[in-house]
From TrEMBL:
Keyword Metal-binding: no
Keyword Nucleotide-binding on entry: no
Name of the featured protein: Glycosyltransferase RgtA/B/C/D-like domain-containing protein
Keywords: Membrane, Transmembrane, Transmembrane helix
Organism: Candidatus Ozemobacter sibiricus
Organism classification: Bacteria, Candidatus Ozemobacteria, Candidatus Ozemobacterales, Candidatus Ozemobacteraceae, Candidatus Ozemobacter
Chain segments annotated as transmembrane: 83-101, 132-150, 162-185, 197-221, 241-259, 271-297, 317-335
Length: 477
């Protein structure tokens, strides 16, 4: 373990990132799903929140995360959700930090490497079950690091990890892949006994047998990974700036290995190569690449630490100086986020439009962009409003349906909307789709603000409020 004073520095470096976080599009329906599971004591297996997929199977692979989130929110409110996020973020940071320390027990270099991914965590770990996968990957990397010493208990711990993880988020598949490669290499090198290969059978079997959806969960995961996601930038190749970052992290361990004449572990090189290839196809995997790059760098530094006197002689003073500077900088930036709050960004989400529909809408069929669907479900489902599409994505809706309703936001070709025959339309207040809506004579515009516009089918019963309510920009709105 790192010394206590170093752990304290790591905590101080991480704390400013925990001040607050904006509401995510999916937070709304995750909380509602958790409330429903707690109330009904059952996991909903079919959809009844939409009118386009009503009765279809719903592979709700995040059900356990939703129970935890809803239970904490009902008991402790928004501050409870922020505390839960803080726990996940701290877990991700410290699990990886400990894995780095075991490779390179040097306070300066370990702290520097610990800091590099902090801002990635702060962006990726928001109020969504996806954050569990980021933490889960770092935990797997730490357990595999310990298993490399010949210890057997981490292999048992990994089994328990996958048992829980497969009910929290479908990202457990990344952990299975990483574990499988590492265990095979450890058996091949004699670090673990040949019987450890059985883990490659036991771990997947655990995730199939001990989740409510059985093999259907695996079928969903492979279908999702192989599907196009035009509406989700993180599922597509990285933008040029992010591609440069990915290339830098890919090259850093290689340059270090050549310069210092050291080498990382075989599984670290393999993990770096695979994660870099995945990142070039889908930007969301850059966090995996960063993790493997840092592990490879730490292994190289640990085998032959730099001997420059500037880094070795005044090490304690240098660490303290760097820590104070980093703490000041991160704390200053952290204050830019409202501490202790979960704001809803009115520039991204239709705060005013949802407030209007809460006052005006009764039972109806509502079309709106996928990213707004969960927000609408949370506030309008009790009023009998059914949505055409929402952030549950391909866990409920067919892939082709999701793709079609994503493309139309860009090209304005609204034939897929005509096919689902909504009573109410809510879209952006400008752009090609808005222009298309204004040409439809069978719909009339009843509301518009800076972000969204609402159209209602002519003749459809509608209770237009005499006073248009203002939206609330704090979760849940």
């Amino acid at each position: 373990m790192p010394p206590g004073w170093l752990l304290l520095i790591w905590v101080l470096l991480t704390l400013p990132l925990l001040a607050g976080v904006s509401a995510d599009a999916d937070l709304f329906w995750h909380i509602l799903a958790g409330q429903r599971i707690l109330a009904e004591r059952a996991i909903p297996m079919i959809d009844d929140w939409s009118y386009t997929a009503s009765g279809h199977p719903w592979i709700n692979h995040e059900w356990l995360s939703q129970i935890v989130m809803a239970g904490i929110w009902e008991a402790f409110g928004n501050r409870g959700l922020l505390a839960l996020r803080a726990l996940v973020l701290l877990g991700a940071a410290f699990f990886l930090g400990l894995a780095l320390w075991k490779r390179c027990p040097d306070p300066f270099w370990a702290t520097l490497l610990f800091c590099l991914p902090l801002w990635v965590y702060s962006e990726l770990i928001n109020l969504r079950p996806l954050g569990v996968t980021t933490m889960g990957v770092t935990l797997v990397l730490l357990l595999l690091t310990i298993a490399r010493t010949g210890a057997r208990w981490p292999l048992w711990a990994l089994g328990g990890c996958f048992l829980v993880w497969c009910n929290l988020h479908a990202g457990f598949m990344f952990g299975l892949g990483i574990s499988g490669i590492a265990i095979l290499l450890m058996v091949r090198s004699g670090i673990q006994p040949p019987g450890a290969v059985l883990c490659l059978l036991i771990y997947p079997l655990v995730t199939i047998v001990l989740n409510p959806f059985g093999i259907s969960l695996w079928e969903y995961i492979f279908r999702e990974v192989g599907s196009p996601h035009p509406h989700l930038p993180e599922w597509n190749p990285p933008e040029p700036a992010l591609a440069v970052v990915a290339m830098v992290f890919f090259l850093l361990p290689i340059v270090l290995a050549i310069w210092r004449r050291t080498s990382a572990l075989p599984e670290e090189w393999l993990g770096l190569l695979i994660s870099h290839a995945m990142t070039m196809q889908s930007a969301r995997f850059i966090v995996l690449e960063i993790m493997f790059a840092l592990l490879a760098i730490a292994s190289g530094l640990g085998r032959r630490p730099p001997a420059h006197p500037f880094l070795t002689c005044p090490r304690r003073a240098l660490i303290n100086l760097a820590a104070l500077g980093a703490i000041f900088g991160t704390f200053h930036l952290g204050l830019m986020k409202p501490p202790g709050r979960i704001p809803i960004d009115p520039r991204r989400y239709p705060v005013g439009g949802i407030a209007y529909l809460r006052a005006a809408a009764g039972p109806s069929k509502l079309w709106l962009p996928l990213g707004w669907g969960g927000y609408a479900i949370f506030h309008l489902s009790q009023r009998g409003v059914k949505v055409a599409i929402d952030g549950r994505n391909t866990t409920v809706y067919p892939v082709d349906f999701v793709v079609a309703h994503s493309h139309l936001l860009v090209d304005g070709k609204a034939e897929p909307i005509r096919q689902v025959d909504p009573d109410v339309l809510m879209g952006y207040a400008s752009g090609p789709l808005y222009d298309t809506f204004t040409t439809w004579s069978d719909y009339e515009q009843v509301y518009r603000d800076d972000l969204c516009a609402i159209f209602v089918r002519r003749g459809f019963p509608w209770n237009h409020p005499s006073v248009i309510p203002s939206g609330i920009t704090e979760f849940p709105g």
